[in-house]
Amino acid sequence: NAGVTQTPKFRILKIGQSMTLQCTQDMNHNYMYWYRQDPGMGLKLIYYSVGAGITDKGEVPNGYNVSRSTTEDFPLRLELAAPSQTSVYFCASSYLQKGQGEAFFGQGTRLTVV
Amino acid sequence: AQKVTQAQTEISVVEKEDVTLDCVYETRDTTYYLFWYKQPPSGELVFLIRRNSFDEQNEISGRYSWNFQKSTSSFNFTITASQVVDSAVYFCALSEAKSGGYQKVTFGTGTKLQVIP
Predict the structure, then answer these.
(1) Chain center to CA of A81
(2) Closest CA relative to residue A109, chosen from A18, A40, A9
(3) What is the pLDDT of residues B50-81, one digit of tens each?
(4) A27 touches chain B (CB under 8 A)
(5) Interface residue A88 vs chain B (CB under 8 A)
(6) Phi, psi (5° rounding) for residue B84?
């Protein structure tokens, strides 16, 4: 089982460049999430989606955009990369509503903006 | 507002020792869920356990056990006879249980456990 797959695993961007982090899941989960993990800070929610065509902002959405055209895919777009976006990014999905469901995480994307 | 506190930033133990990772949470909700995740050096987060606020029974799974106490708002995680493979960062998380839309999941800052052979 593939679970949640993120690409790329590593990326270096120059300030002002743009890129898309890809995320796909094969578990037919309705809920999908993007988090960023900064050292010693836990995980912060960037955007989430409760189903195809429905997305909403999390705690730290500035500088990012998402789309959810299918159940499987939830790409994260960085426009005009800034050094503050240097972080490890995790995509996750879950299958239960009301906060009950555990999240399944991808392996992460380590992004450095220089 | 929800909050999860993992006061232990890093813990080192010698293999075969027992170790307890602390998690203290704050919420105004009466119904909520608590989670523990493991992040090994490879980087991905792996789900370990979920607990709902109405179930205060302790749980044991092999060398892992969890102690949930609503009176002290704590959900501590104990590893018995630790092994090198237990070396990882462990996250505690809290989730609301309201209907409709997204229920915020708040993660603690993690505890890095190093098991020394």
Answers:
(1) 15
(2) A9
(3) 998 988 888 888 999 999 999 999 999 999 99
(4) no
(5) yes
(6) -60, -35
